[in-house]
Amino acid sequence: MISKLPSTGICLLAGALMTLAYAPYNIFFVAIVCPAILLIIWSNSSPAKAFWNGYLFGLGMFGTGVYWLYISINLFGGINFFGAIFFTFLFIAFMSLYPAIFGYVSRRWFAQNNAVYLLLACPALWVLTDWTRSWLFTGFPWLNLGYSQTDSVLSGIAPIFGVYGITWLCVLIASLLAYLYLLKGKHTLTIVFSIIILSITSWSLTQINWTKNLEKNISVALVQAAIPQKLKWRPELRQQSLELYMQLSEPYWGNDLLIWPETAIPAYHFTVPGFIENLSTLSNKRGTIFLSGIPSKEKEAKDYFNSVMMLSNGEMSWYHKQHLVPFGEYLPLKPLFGVILGFLQIPMSDFSAGRQEAPLLITKDLTLGISICYEDTFGEEVIKALPQASVLVNVSNDAWFGDSLAPHQHLQMARMRALESGRYMLRATNTGISAIINQKGKVISQSNQFEATTLSSEIATYEGSTPYSMWGNYPVIISAFLIVFLIIFQTRKK
Question: 66 lies in which domain range?
Answer without folding.
Answer: 2-209+474-493
